[in-house]
Write a sequence for this structure.
């Protein structure tokens, strides 16, 4: 039984969404809050609700608690810190970048992340101005690389470059209308 729903976040959801995001960067990433990387976490309304081309989705359980997040915006990967060829291949404005796809441990293995991605791709397709859906992930996070490999194509694995780079893996997710089963 699916006891959660996926929907566009409202201002009332922002506290729960922020908590999921912060818990993830502290617990799963081990970095904690880093302002230059995580400004959108403290201001999700400014980053995701203020522009019609951006969105923040939440997965909400039967008790009304936010258990997952997924965001999309029109900012392509910046150079630096990302390799120049990625910034050129995925320019801002034409690139829908998936961000903050996080699910609380108790909500994992229930299809929530896949549904969030499908809804984000649907959003990008409906926008009409995006030509690619891009994201990057840290393969040190358990399950992250395998999950994204099941949904997209690796466009650059920094571990394969000289010196191993940052170890980040960059993906493109096919931009076809996703098929989502409404629950």
């Amino acid at each position: 039984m699916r006891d959660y729903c996926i929907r566009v976040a409202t201002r009332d959801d922002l506290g729960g969404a922020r908590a999921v995001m912060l818990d993830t960067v502290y617990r799963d990433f081990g970095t904690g809050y880093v302002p230059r990387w995580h400004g959108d976490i403290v201001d999700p309304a400014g980053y995701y609700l203020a522009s019609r081309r951006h969105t923040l989705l939440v997965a909400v359980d039967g008790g009304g608690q936010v258990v997952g997040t997924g965001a999309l915006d029109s900012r392509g990967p910046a150079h630096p810190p990302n390799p120049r060829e990625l910034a050129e291949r995925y320019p801002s404005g034409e690139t829908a970048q998936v961000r903050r796809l996080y699910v609380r441990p108790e909500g994992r293995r229930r299809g929530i992340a896949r549904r969030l991605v499908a809804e984000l791709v649907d959003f990008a397709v409906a926008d009409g101005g995006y030509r690619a859906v891009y994201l990057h992930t840290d393969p040190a996070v358990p399950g992250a690389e395998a999950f994204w490999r099941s949904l997209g194509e690796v466009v650059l694995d920094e571990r394969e470059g000289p010196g191993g780079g940052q170890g980040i893996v960059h993906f493109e997710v096919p931009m076809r209308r996703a098929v989502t089963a409404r629950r």
